[in-house]
Amino acid sequence: MNEERQWAEAILKEGDEVSFRRLYRRHTPRLFNIALRMLGSRADAEDIVQETWVRAVRQLGRFRWQSAFSTWLTGIGLNLCRDHLRRRKRLSWSALEALPEPSAAAAPSGLRLDLEEAVQALPEGYRMVLLLHDLEGWTHREIAHGMGISEGTSKSQLFNARRAVKASLKGEGNRNERRTG
Amino acid sequence: MNEERDEVQWTDGEAEDLKRLARSEELPADLEDRIVARLSSEGLLGRRVLPWWRQLWMPWALAGTAALAAVFLLGFSLGQRAGADSAASMMAEVRQTRDLEQAIANVQRTGSAYVTALSALGHLSAAQSTDPAERRQSQEVALSALYAAAQELVRLDSDDPVAARLLQGLEAERLRQVSAQDSQQEPKPRKIFWN
To answer: How much is the CA Rg of chain B, to the nearest whole Å?
Structure first.
């Protein structure tokens, strides 16, 4: 039994706070980072992280340890991010398949964008897949399983996300060249 | 970046930027404590852990208590049933008596039972009731049986002075109670009837 599972057992059986803090410190930095990139707000990211841990501890007894704890935890966090974004009425995950072409997600002209801003400007569906795949190292299979979409959709979203980011950066570069030229 | 289409790849500079982007933001200092407090308030953390001997003791204690309760209820039920059966069989035996010796023995047994019941009534009346009306009712129950017995005793031997005096005293007490009730002029239904 790995140590994370032992900690989880201690939380379940004894409500052990020390074990919880160990799990928290191991996984929260990445969880917070994803939530922050997804939501673009530290306050919202904190709320999501808190709610994620509460749900995770509540559901800990149902986790079968057939996948990595971090994957399971991040899945909970991403679902909460998705709900949060839905409440903002920006995007419904079910509408991901019908997302516009990447050109529509490119940065508005006149704005200077670095990579971080370009990622932040992506539609949420693109951003989520890009963050999970390129920053967190998830496979398309894991993304598909965690997000409830097909692997093909995950691949398509990643392709479109990268193209949109590159288009944003390239467009900004062209604009800078025109200004200096 | 192993499964995506080949058309779009990051440049080295973009890959560096991505690595920088992937670096964790600094966590809010108090977030951990806030989450622990929330989990504790919901009873998910910080539950009291019983020592091993109490964890073992608790189920046994519960099982023992349940077993005792079951034995008590079983015994109580059997006792009630046996008592009822015993009284019923005693009454049947008394009615079917044809032999004088057996009749004497029956009087002795039922007399003992009466005294025992009277003793129990006295204990219960003293322990469970502070209401004078309830205590008076208990006394009337006991006296009514004694009165009926005295009547039978006089019938057995009309010249017996002890039986005559007992019946006389009980009759005087009965008349006094009737007179007291009549003077109050409250038509209370009587619960006890003298034979």
So the answer is: 42
CA distance A78 to chain B (A): 16
Please name which of A100, A129, A165, A90 lies closest in space to residue B4, comparing C-alpha atoms.
Answer: A129
Residue with tokens 């039922």: B110
Of B7, B21, B47, the CB nearest to A135: B21
Smallest Cβ distance to A50: which of B34, B46, B47? B34
Tens digit of pLDDT for each residue in B117-154?
777 777 777 777 677 777 777 777 777 777 777 777 77
Dist. CA B188–CA B183, nearest whole Å: 12
* Cα-based angle B151, B154, B156 (whole degrees, multiple of 5): 110
Does residue A91 contact residue A105 with C-beta atoms inside 8 Å?
no
Residue of A139, A134, A125, A142 whose CA lies nearest to A38: A125
Alpha carbon separation from A34 to A15, A80, A128, B6 (Å, rounded): 27, 12, 8, 25
In this structure, chain B runs to a length of 195
Crossing angle, helix B132-156 and helix B100-128, to 10 degrees? 170
Q: Cβ atoms within 10 A of the Cβ of B165, count?
A: 11
Contact residues on chain B for A23, CB-CB shorter than 8 A: none
From A16, A135, A140, residue closest to B22, measured CB to CB: A135
Tens digits of per-residue pLDDT, B11-69? 888 888 787 777 767 888 899 999 999 999 999 998 655 555 555 555 666 676 677 77
Contact list in B for residue A169 (CB cut-off 8 A) is 14
